[in-house]
């Protein structure tokens, strides 16, 4: 099988057209749980770099197979983003062959020796692909946090030597049906009597956010929250429980995406403030705030064993998809 690289280009390239057609075929039939996109958007997304990550795109010369991944110099990781094979050409080894070629190309991009690379399919991949929640028209989530366990890709990657290292669940809630319960209102009042209130974070007034986020050890949160300008500068509000000016956690930023989705980056409570029920109340504040801003729904994902799932489920969220984070090691 002859394989060619698809390079970043603003000029017409039949290879990109074939890759887009194959992507749309796979997405349309459900082989890839991705939302469709226009040809120009497809090329802009897959070509070039994303947050400093170098993209690698390979195409079978006849247009029957496409594979994409990237090397992220920040984490040093080699990510596989997708492998697609034309329906009539499947089960002929083309998927395995182009995946192997992609792995070699990623090793070269990452400066690894051939056969020594570690490849990953996970939510840490800076290349994000939106997907549509089945059975709910107009409901989309901006990234797939792994491999859909109910699809054929899961078995394909397992057969190619990839192994699961975490399971992620995607959740959904119709915010129009969300109700801020009386019990949580009373809980909020009680915490207020203890000096704990819920505020929009302001770096000029509140302290401890940077140190707390560093303790959580999640660079995505640090980038999202610490990089957010204050409200006076047009920033999106970040909710935080506060006591005597010290932040005890965070959630947000609060914003409504064009399709009506309430944005969500994460939620966490500092170690010294846990056990007070702050996490559940903070999440209720988030849902209520997004609803007031006109959000129609929320989607999010979290690990199967993450205690935060109890917060989401108590607020009325239900699991709509499960994903496997997978890794292949030498």
Characterize the structure shown.
The chain has 330 residues and is of the alpha+beta class. It has helices at residues 14-28, 39-46, 94-110, 152-159, 182-193, 209-216, 219-226, 278-292, 308-314, and strands at 3-5, 49-50, 53-60, 65-72, 77-85, 119-121, 131-132, 140-141, 147-148, 163-174, 196-200, 239-243, 246-247, 249-252, 261-262, 266-269, 297-303, 318-328. Strand 12 (239-243) and strand 13 form a beta hairpin. Helix 6 runs antiparallel to helix 7 (219-226). It starts with a strand and ends with a strand.
Would you spell out the secondary-structure blueprint of this structure?
Layout: E1 3-5, H1 14-28, H2 39-46, E2 49-50, E3 53-60, E4 65-72, E5 77-85, H3 94-110, E6 119-121, E7 131-132, E8 140-141, E9 147-148, H4 152-159, E10 163-174, H5 182-193, E11 196-200, H6 209-216, H7 219-226, E12 239-243, E13 246-247, E14 249-252, E15 261-262, E16 266-269, H8 278-292, E17 297-303, H9 308-314, E18 318-328
Parallel strand pairs: 5-6, 15-17
Antiparallel strand pairs: 1-3, 2-3, 3-4, 4-5, 6-18, 7-8, 9-18, 10-17, 10-18, 11-12, 12-13, 14-16
Helix pairs in contact: 6-7
């Amino acid at each position: 099988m002859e394989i060619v690289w698809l390079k970043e280009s603003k000029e017409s390239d039949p290879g990109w057209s074939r890759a887009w057609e194959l992507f749309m075929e796979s997405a349309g039939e459900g082989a890839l749980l991705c939302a469709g996109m226009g040809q120009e958007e497809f090329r802009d997304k897959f070509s070039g770099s994303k947050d400093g990550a170098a993209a690698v795109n390979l195409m079978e010369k006849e247009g029957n197979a496409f594979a994409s991944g990237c090397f992220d110099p920040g984490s040093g990781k080699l990510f596989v983003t997708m492998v697609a094979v034309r329906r009539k050409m499947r089960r002929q080894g083309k998927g395995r062959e182009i995946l192997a070629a992609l792995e070699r190309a990623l090793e070269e991009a990452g400066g690894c020796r051939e056969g020594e690379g570690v490849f990953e399919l996970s939510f840490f991949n800076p290349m994000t692909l939106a997907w549509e929640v089945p059975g709910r028209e107009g409901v989309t989530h901006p990234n797939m946090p792994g491999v859909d366990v109910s699809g054929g890709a899961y078995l394909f990657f397992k057969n190619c030597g990839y192994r699961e290292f975490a399971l992620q669940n995607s959740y959904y809630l119709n915010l129009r049906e969300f109700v801020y319960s009386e019990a949580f209102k009373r809980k909020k009042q009680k915490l207020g009597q203890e000096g704990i209130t819920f505020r929009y974070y302001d770096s000029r007034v509140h302290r401890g956010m940077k140190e707390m986020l560093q303790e959580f050890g999640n660079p995505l949160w640090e980038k999202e929250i610490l990089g957010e300008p204050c409200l006076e500068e047009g920033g999106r509000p970040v909710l935080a429980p506060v006591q005597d000016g010290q932040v005890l956690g965070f959630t947000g930023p609060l914003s409504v995406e064009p399709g009506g989705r309430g944005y969500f980056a994460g939620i966490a409570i500092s170690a010294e403030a846990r056990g007070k029920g702050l996490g559940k109340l903070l999440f209720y504040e988030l849902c209520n705030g997004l609803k007031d801003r006109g959000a129609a729904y929320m989607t999010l994902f979290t690990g199967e064993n993450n205690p935060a799932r109890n917060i989401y489920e108590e607020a009325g969220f239900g699991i709509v998809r499960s994903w496997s984070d997978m890794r292949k090691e030498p």
